Amino acid sequence: MQSDDHASFLLLTHYDGGAFSGWQRQPAARTVQGEMERALTAICGAPVTAVGSGRTDAGVHARGQAVGVRVPAKWTAESLRRATNSKLPPDVWVAEAFAMAPAFHPRFSAERRRYAYFVGTDRDAMSPFRRRTEWPLGCALDLDAMRAEAEALPGTHCFRAFAVAGTAPDTDDHRCDVVHAGWRERPGGLVFDIEANRFLHHMVRFLVGTMVEVGRGRRPPGSIASLLTAPDNQATSAPAPPQGLFLEQVRYPSTLYLSPT
């Protein structure tokens, strides 16, 4: 239970994952959680735990990581945001902060999460200014074929074929409820957007890797639908590289927000 002298906040956090060994705190590696906790501890004068809505892997970026913290009640959302940013390194930034109800938990309260994966299809995708934040394929893809593959994803399915084996408990059914999935064009390439109630380890990257293989003519149409019934990931394409993946948004019930959203 939340004590009278502390309050819960949600910090909407952006980060460039290129120089991090992922979100989760590690004793001998630079992580986003580690940097967040260092900044928060510095401004609060006592250890503060930063709890993310989920873990992102090394190289994965975020424009919508939801970070939950409990800090002394003297803080307002805006003063906490400004003070935290004053102590964070340049590759992490708190865009917004919200006061939250005591029941708020950044992981367990989440209703949906949305990711975007960026693929570069033009020659300039190999530029050092782009290859850090997209998969620089530099070749044309069959967009219609990839869109057809994504049409199999909305709904509730078992995604065992699109997860790293052994990263979920034996009792986990690997079922996810996908509310949207689709490809769109952008200057210089494509973007895959997907929103679901949960995601398994490497799930988006396995999906993108498999659909890109269809788009390159290296896998037959219907591969995604077929793999949704597979018992493991043995027939799935290799996962797409991490740098093209962005955590874009985490949705929570409006009743958990004490300050306007």
Structure description:
Strands 1, 2, 3, 4, 5, 6, 7, 8, 9 and 10 form a 10-stranded mixed beta sheet that branches. The protein has 2 domains: 104 residues, Alpha-Beta Plaits; 136 residues, Pseudouridine synthase I, catalytic domain, C-terminal subdomain (Alpha-Beta Plaits), CATH 3.30.70.660. The mean pLDDT is 95. The protein contains 5 helices and 10 strands, in the order βαββαβββαβββααβ. Helix 1 crosses helix 2. The protein has 261 residues and is α+β, with helices and mostly antiparallel strands.
CATH top level assignment of the largest domain? Alpha Beta
Which stretches are poorly predicted, pLDDT < 50 over at least 5 residues?
none
Under the CATH scheme, the architecture of the largest domain is 2-Layer Sandwich
Give me the strand/helix succession. EHEEHEEEHEEEHHE
CATH fold assignment of the largest domain? Alpha-Beta Plaits
Q: Report the helical percentage.
A: 10-25%
Oligomeric state of this protein? single chain
Q: What number of structural domains do the residues give?
A: 2
Major sheet description: 10 strands, mixed
Distance between the termini: 24 Å
Mean pLDDT: 95
Note the overall shape: globular
Strand content: 25-35%
Number of strands: 10
